[in-house]
Amino acid sequence: MMHMTFYWGRSVTILFDSWQTNSWPGYFLSLFALFLFGAFYQYMEERRLRLKLLSVAKPPPYSAAEAPLLNKLGGLRWGPYQIAGAVLFGVNSAIGYFLMLAVMSFNAGVLIAVVVGLAAGYLAFRGGDEDVVVVDNPCACA
């Protein structure tokens, strides 16, 4: 039976039919795993933002006078920084959507584990980054 309102309890299916908890130790291990996934999401986001800063800090290999069309189109130069940034964005988006789907199990413990994991990860990996300002993330969970 799928719950349509938040509930407390140890019996929950998280993401897959094979990830079911029916005992307290299994439930708490699952909550700990979701906590770690939330913290890992913030770690990966911090790595992606650092990579974006590296790619912006590196001067383009051409001047605007040499290739004005490329400069107007937003820079069609795909270098290793841009490709790595796209891969990190894809991985981070997948982790974020998996966390969202886990919360949609409507188990209150799962919600708390994910939110606390995201907050702890932010504090550990992104809390002191006042110099990193990038506002291009369309995900609501960032």
What's a quick, concise take on this entry?
The protein is mainly α and 142 residues long. The protein has helices spanning 24-57, 68-72, 80-103, 108-126, and strands at 12-13, 20-21. The protein has a domain at 29-126.
Overview of this protein structure:
This protein is mainly alpha-helical and 142 residues long. The protein has a domain at 29-126. It has helices at residues 24-57, 68-72, 80-103, 108-126, and strands at 12-13, 20-21. It has a two-stranded antiparallel sheet with strand order 1-2. A hairpin with a 6-residue loop joins strand 1 (12-13) and strand 2 (20-21). Helix 1 (24-57) packs antiparallel against helix 3 (80-103) and helix 1 (24-57) runs parallel beside helix 4 (108-126).
Residue share in β-strands:
under 5%
The number of helical segments is: 4
The secondary-structure element order is: EEHHHH
Shape label = elongated
Q: Between the first and last Cα atoms, what is the distance in angstroms?
A: 31 Å
Estimated helix fraction: 55-70%
Strand order of the largest sheet: 1-2
Q: Largest sheet, described in full?
A: 2 strands, antiparallel
Q: What is the strand tally?
A: 2
Return the average pLDDT rounded to an integer.
83
What's the alpha carbon Rg, rounded to whole Å? Answer: 20 Å
